[in-house]
Every structure is written in structure tokens, then in C-alpha cells.
Design goal:
The protein has twelve helices and eight strands. The protein is α/β, with parallel strands linked by helices. It folds into two domains: 159 residues, Rossmann fold (3-Layer(aba) Sandwich), CATH 3.40.50; 84 residues, ProC C-terminal domain-like fold (Orthogonal Bundle), CATH 1.10.3730.10. The protein has an eight-stranded mixed sheet, sandwiched between helices. Helix 7 crosses helix 12 and helix 8 crosses helix 9. It starts with a strand and ends in a 5-residue tail after the last helix. It binds NADP nicotinamide-adenine-dinucleotide phosphate. The site of NADP nicotinamide-adenine-dinucleotide phosphate (NAP) has 28 residues, from helix 1 and helix 4.
């Protein structure tokens, strides 16, 4: 896998995160090619990551073993239309939110080896969560696993419809924690903590809690119960959260995200959703 030629169409935030993972220690990919509309963006990537920048989509597609479609969902039609005229043979990974694989088959044909992936922004720091779906063969699944595992964890689903739930949980998920951190920082400040101190307290608390969740082998519920002494301060806070119907708020929020994912999908490809 180490000698794969990996191409990116679209060199934005998510492509950069995946490239950074690929080119970091232990995941050395010998050739990464990127094309993007913006020549400034390409120049930046070339300087920072020593990737090969290409002006043409066709150049990247024909030189790649794995081609990552990393443009915005509303930009993918233009890319697919251009790719439909190119003769190439590789694993095609789409990370475009809401874009159904059937839409890509429509443009690239039933023989295309397609993998749909929902990554998330912590890929930028090597702690991403990427969920993959594919009906292609093992080689294509292994290649895409290799590409995404470089920037975090990977998991597979066997039903493409589950991508809506995945989007609601891990795709949009980092923003929920950012909101909670933002709110806690603001309240900390309003209680008299300085802005810097409040930020440090929240950030370290988030990091510590995340490490405990990942490393302790205990469930979130168990960890919550462990830090909640009867009649104590944590219980006072959590009771207030339950009184404010936080579980309903979270359920409604994730349901809204999944619904929006379906809507985006259907607005992009009404014939298949
Ligand atoms: N960011 C996230 O949290 C996240 C999470 C999961 C999935 N995704 C998916 O990842 C994909 C990329 O997201 P992103 O945040 O990285 O977007 P982004 O930063 O906007 O990157 C897309 C890049 O592709 C360029 N581009 C547009 N059309 C192109 C074309 N025809 N040929 C070559 N390059 C082209 C864009 O240029 P312009 O800026 O000039 O248009 C931009 O630089 C999206 O489909 C999104 O749904 C993102």
C-alpha cells in the first residue's frame, strides 16, 4: 500500500487533513497529486507537503491508484461530468456529504470502484473518525482504509442509508462539543474566571474527559456516575441539565442533522434518494 499513487480533486480543508495524515510518519505515500481550482491553494499545499500539484483533473485521475473526490457536494457534478470523459482505472473515494454512490455510478458507470466516506474535522489533528461504505471488492476497500486510517479511526457500515446517522453523530459531532465548550467558557467567565483561564479549564477538561472515555474501558454512563456524588455539585449541574430536557435536545438535534443529510442528498440527486 505504501507505494500507492493517491490523487485528490479539491485541495480544501478535508483533503489537506487526509494528505497531512498520509505524509506523516508511518504512512508515507510515495506520490500524492492534488488539483484545485485555486492555484494559490495548490502552491500552498505543494510547499507545505511536497505534493505534486496538477492543473487538470484528467492528469490526476489517470495517474492515480486511488482518487479522492474532495470538493463540496454542490461542486461534485462539475467534477463528475469532467471525469466521465476521462479513461481511468482506480479506486474512487467520495467524501462529499450527502452524495449517494448511485449518483456517481450515473456519471462514471457501473464498473467504477466506488467508496463513500464520511470523515470529520479532527482528521486535521490525526484523530478523525471516518466511516466508509462500499460495494467494491477487497482491494478497493483496503486501499480506502489505508488512506483514511492515516488521519484517525475508521469504521465500515454495510448500508449506505446509515451514512445519514453517521453524519449526524460523527460528521457534525465535533461542532456539538465545540458549542458545549464555548458555552462553558462563557459561563466560566461570567462567574469571574479570566478568559484565558476559563478557556484552559474547559479545553483541558474536554481533553481529559475524552481520554477517559477512550482509554478507561468504561462507558460514558459509568464515568458520569463515578464523578457524581449524591447531593454534590456535579449532581446539581446534571439535574439541571435533565430538568432542561438535555436528552430530548440532543435527540432532536441529531435527528435534525440526519434529516438535513437526507434533504441535501435528495436535492442533489432527486432520482435516487
Ligand atoms: N469539513 C468537514 O467537516 C467535512 C466533514 C465530512 C465531509 N466533508 C466533505 O468533504 C468535502 C470537502 O469539504 P472541505 O471542507 O474540504 O471543502 P473545501 O475546503 O471547500 O474544499 C474543496 C476544494 O475544492 C475546490 N474545488 C471546487 N471545485 C473544484 C473543481 N472542479 N476542481 C478542483 N477543485 C475544485 C474548492 O475551491 P473553491 O474554494 O474555490 O470552490 C476548494 O478548494 C465536502 O464534500 C464535504 O461535504 C467535510
Amino acid at each position: 500500500m505504501r507505494n500507492l499513487n493517491i490523487g485528490f480533486i479539491g485541495g480544501g480543508n478535508m483533503a489537506e487533513a487526509i494528505v497531512a495524515g498520509l505524509l506523516s510518519g508511518g504512512h508515507a505515500a510515495t506520490h500524492v497529486r492534488v488539483t484545485d481550482i485555486s492555484s494559490e491553494r495548490l502552491a500552498m499545499l505543494e510547499e507545505k507537503y511536497a505534493i505534486v500539484s496538477c492543473a487538470e483533473i484528467s492528469t490526476v485521475a489517470t495517474a492515480s491508484d486511488v482518487l479522492v473526490l474532495a470538493v463540496k457536494p454542490q461542486q461534485i457534478d462539475a467534477v463528475l461530468t469532467e471525469l466521465a470523459d476521462v479513461s481511468f482505472d482506480c479506486t474512487v473515494i467520495s467524501i462529499a456529504a450527502g452524495v449517494n454512490l448511485a449518483r456517481i455510478v450515473d456519471c462514471l458507470g457501473a464498473d467504477a470502484a466506488l467508496v463513500r466516506v464520511m470523515p470529520n474535522t479532527p482528521c486535521l489533528v490525526g484523530e478523525g473518525m471516518s466511516v466508509l461504505f462500499s460495494e467494491a471488492g477487497d482491494l478497493h476497500r483496503q486501499r480506502s482504509e489505508y488512506v483514511l486510517a492515516a488521519s484517525g479511526k475508521t469504521a465500515w457500515v454495510d448500508d449506505e442509508q446509515l451514512m445519514h446517522a453517521v453524519t449526524a453523530v460523527s460528521g457534525s459531532g465535533p461542532a456539538y462539543f465545540f458549542l458545549l465548550a464555548e458555552l462553558m467558557q462563557t459561563v466560566g467567565q461570567s462567574m469571574g474566571l479570566g478568559a484565558e483561564l476559563s478557556k484552559t479549564l474547559v479545553n483541558q477538561t474536554v481533553l481529559g474527559a475524552a481520554k477517559m472515555l477512550v482509554d478507561s474501558g468504561k462507558s460514558a454512563e459509568e464515568l458520569r456516575q463515578q464523578v457524581t456524588s449524591p447531593g454534590g455539585t456535579t449532581q446539581a449541574a446534571l439535574e439541571t441539565m435533565f430538568d432542561g430536557h438535555l436528552p430530548d435536545v440532543v435527540r432532536n438535534a441529531l435527528t435534525a442533522a440526519a434529516k438535513r443529510s437526507r434533504e441535501l442528498g435528495s436535492s442533489l440527486m432527486p432520482e435516487v434518494v
